[in-house]
């Protein structure tokens, strides 16, 4: 029996370890770029020196962001450690891409209201959840029906950034609109079931453990796609969640029409959520928990936006 091709081995290992499909695509792309950079040499014949030269090239010649260079490094370390079984030492001589110290873009309360006023339907509801509950874009897109607790006014985020679960609030003003939205989604799901479909993607090995769970209402996406599509992993036709670019485009257009002269995006609503909570006097540890930050130092950046902390100084001009 022939040994699987290298990239097939990478895919198999990524799926065995339950990496997301998005990460799988990214890692495969970086490994391909690494191989082509070194004139299609097999990674087995290369090591630390070749990895260092590739990463340095990305930083110096391509001028990539620090996060992009780190993503490439993670992909290559996964290849060598998990697939090829080689231990790669810490790459001391790599020229690191500079990580700029930028403050997050934050909208005022009035700007948020103006933005939401220029959205409608599903886009309005999703943007309202991003701001009202502090969700990341993909957390909102991947939200399942079972994780919305109307009675407790909670949203449970499963497998958020870093693979962590957390609980955040469900704004009371969104309960009625969200329930109305879910009634329409339930009709769509019933139609899929009647047509012999209705099976949704389940994480990890749940599809094998609970064969019928994928057709149950609780596992369906809160924001499903308008059309069914072929699952790239299983090859089955099913209804996935909405494409995140749909909301990104809607918010970009709304920002423009609302006359907001800031580079606002979906993530800006999460930044605004945190900042406005701190402005309202909520404890930073509470905000940290709601955002799902591992370290409070990450949440501290919003105090800089507020000009609080050590720089809460009154100008001498204002004391005249």
The CATH level-2 architecture of the largest domain is identified as Orthogonal Bundle
Overall form: globular
Going by helix content, strand content and strand pairing, the class is: mainly alpha
The overall pLDDT average reads 89
CATH class categorisation of the largest domain = Mainly Alpha
Q: What are the SSEs and their pairings?
A:
Layout (H helix, E strand, L loop, with lengths): L5 H11 L4 H17 L10 H13 L5 H18 L25 H9 L3 H13 L3 H5 L6 E2 L4 E4 L8 E4 L5 H20 L11 H4 L19 E2 L6 E2 L5 H14 L8 H14 L4 H8 L4 H4 L1 H5 L15
Antiparallel strand pairs: 1-2, 2-3, 4-5
Helix pairs in contact: 1-2, 2-4, 3-4, 6-11
Q: How would you describe what is shown here?
A:
The chain is mostly helical. It folds into two domains: 6-83, Orthogonal Bundle (DNA polymerase, domain 1), CATH 1.10.150; 109-302, Orthogonal Bundle (hpI Integrase, Chain A), CATH 1.10.443.10. 48% of the residues lie in helices and 4% in strands. It contains 14 helices and five strands. The protein has helices spanning 6-16, 21-37, 48-60, 66-83, 109-117, 121-133, 137-141, 175-194, 206-209, 244-257, 266-279, 284-291, 296-299, 301-305, and strands at residues 148-149, 154-157, 166-169, 229-230, 237-238. The strands form two sheets. Strands 1-2-3 form a three-stranded antiparallel β-sheet. The radius of gyration is 23 Å and the shape is globular. It starts with 5 loop residues before the first helix and ends in a 15-residue tail after the last helix. InterPro entries: CB (IPR044068), DNA_brk_join_enz (IPR011010), Integrase-like_cat_sf (IPR013762), Integrase_catalytic (IPR002104), Integrase_integron-type (IPR011946), Integrase_recombinase_N (IPR010998), Integrase_SAM-like_N (IPR004107), Tyrosine_recombinase_XerCD (IPR050090). One of its GO terms (biological process) is DNA integration.
């Amino acid at each position: 029996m022939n040994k699987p091709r290298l990239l097939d081995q990478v895919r198999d290992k990524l799926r065995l370890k339950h990496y997301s499909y998005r990460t799988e695509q990214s890692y495969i792309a970086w490994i391909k770029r690494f191989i082509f950079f070194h004139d299609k040499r097999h990674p087995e014949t290369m090591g630390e020196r070749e990895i260092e030269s590739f990463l340095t090239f990305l930083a110096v010649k391509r001028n990539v962001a620090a996060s992009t260079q780190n993503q490439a490094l993670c992909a290559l370390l996964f290849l060598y450690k998990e697939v090829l079984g080689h231990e790669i030492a810490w790459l001391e001589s790599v020229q690191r891409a500079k990580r700029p110290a930028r403050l997050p873009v934050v909208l005022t309360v009035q700007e948020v209201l103006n933005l939401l006023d220029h959205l409608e339907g599903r886009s309005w509801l999703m943007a309202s959840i991003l701001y009202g509950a502090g969700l990341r874009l993909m957390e909102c897109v991947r939200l399942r029906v079972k994780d919305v607790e109307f009675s407790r006014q909670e949203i449970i985020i499963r497998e958020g950034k870093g693979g962590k679960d957390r609980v955040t609030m469900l704004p009371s003003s969104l309960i009625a609109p969200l329930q109305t939205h879910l009634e329409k989604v339930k009709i769509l799901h019933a139609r899929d079931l009647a047509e012999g479909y209705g099976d949704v993607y389940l994480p990890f090995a749940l599809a094998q453990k609970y064969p019928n769970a994928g057709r149950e209402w609780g596992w369906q996406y809160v924001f499903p796609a308008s059309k069914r599509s072929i699952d790239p992993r299983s090859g089955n036709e099913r209804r996935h969640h909405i494409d995140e670019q749909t909301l990104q485009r809607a918010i970009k257009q709304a920002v423009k029409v609302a006359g907001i002269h800031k580079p606002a995006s979906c993530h800006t609503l999460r930044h605004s959520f945190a900042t406005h909570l701190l402005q309202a006097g909520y404890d930073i540890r509470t905000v940290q928990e709601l955002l799902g930050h591992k370290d409070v130092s990450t949440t501290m950046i919003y105090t800089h936006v507020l000009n609080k902390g050590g720089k809460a100084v009154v100008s001498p001009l204002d004391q005249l």
